[in-house]
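Hey, quick one: can you model this chain's 3D structure?
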Amino acid sequence: MARKSIPQESRQDPGFIRDPDGFINVPVSKETREQLHALKVSMQVASQAEVIEKAIAIVSAIDAAVRK
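Sure thing. Here's the predicted structure for all 68 residues.
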């Protein structure tokens, strides 16, 4: 089932994306690069940086919940 497209103006842009603090430049496998692109499409975001920001937020929330 295809996801409904969310209009760009309706998408929330967390402050940490508007206010970047640095860059990471790490080597990744071809599979990781392809999956990152697939997540970018699935999450309907404009950049791989947004995918990474959201993924870190999700994993951090899971980590915090498990630690309680």
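One thing worth noting: The two ends are 35 Å apart (CA to CA).
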